[in-house]
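Incident review: delayed structure delivery

Summary: a single-chain prediction request sat in the queue longer than the usual turnaround. Root cause was a stuck worker, restarted by the on-call engineer. No data loss occurred. The affected request and its eventual output are reproduced below so the record is complete for anyone auditing the incident later.

Affected input:
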Amino acid sequence: MRDYVKEKPLIIEEGNGCTLRDTDGNEYLDGVSSLWTNVHGHRREGIDRAVKTQLGKIAHSTMLGLSNVPAIRCAKKLVEIAPQGLSKVFYSDNGSTAVEIALKMAFQYQQQAPAGDRAKTRFISLTNAYHGDTIGAVSVGGIDLFHATYKTLLFSSLKAESPYCYRCVFGKSYPDCGLACLGQMEELMKKHAHEAAALIIEPLVQGAAGIIVQPPGYLKRVRELCTRYNIIMIADEVAVGFGKTGTMFACEHEDVAPDIMAVAKGITGGYLPLAATLATEKIYEGFLGEYDEFKTFFHGHTYTGNPLACAAAVASLEIFEEERTLEGLQGKIKHLTERLESFRSLKHAGEVRQRGFMVGIELVVGKDTREPFAPAEKIGHRIILEARKRGLIIRPLGNVIVLMPPLSMTTSELDRLCDITFAAIRAVTEGL
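Output delivered after worker restart:
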């Protein structure tokens, strides 16, 4: 925070497409899609128009005992594109809350559903996991930097080792490892299946951990284990959803259908806060009962199903359909992959990780030792400031430089993104 006070804060005033403009008139490429949300670029005519049209009708109406037209339309679209079996939608307003809802749903289901088990009160999550900043979400998190301070406030969760292949805790190398991390997860499930209500996982990519990409087949095997040991599977698609891995939802890559799924971030195209927790019919039916049984899901938010946000979400999903965004994305993903090859030549680039438009470049003191830079070096922070001087907004995760551009970014803009990032990393690290 002292550094922030010393530096002149950058104040963004305008945006158009993939370009941001500050109050001094300087322009920057938006290299992280405004924190992983702005999938179609800024000031998209279709979304602008949808919000303005809805504003001419009503800005907000409670969903406690009521509903509204955009919320119904949005829920219908979400169910149509979601992994098979997710047929019910519960709205909220941010990713952390969508996860809190998922955890509470799974817990309450076990407590009261005919197929539930009251002994199942605990959650399994992964080391290096990040699921949000509220207390429940932090309890299933696994990044000490974000979570350790609150340890005494948290409920205890069971931790499975994440597939961080670059820094494998088992000292093995993929693919010869036989996915040892999955073996450890299965042992955990065998031992705790009687008390495990659900497992929560970020499918394919652990985002805030530094864009840790899971090896092929890992996610599908996790689904199989959850089914085998009768553990509810919660997919946290907040960061990876809405096209960022190359498919609408990351689960699609391995034909995985979770029991509960949390979505947010890109749902409105980065326009307004909105989130949703989707569940199967089986989960939903566990909450049905007579009035005096009090089986309902006692959770609600003032802005649940906000009409403006839902109108933006519908417009965003229509852009995906009308412009065939995901089809057009595949060539750009390939182009980005090719451009990232040159980063491997950088002296301090230990690993370059990519899944779709999600990229993490992990910087190390030496490639042989994989020794991380000390926090006092502020390597990531120095690099993003250098990139900013050159007209690019990106953010680091410690020693990992993250790139996550809008899906609408052109190949020429991707070239500029890569050129500036490469130059910024080299400028900061070449003298080390």
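Verification: The first helix runs from residue 2 to 6.
Action items: add queue-age alerting; document worker restart procedure.
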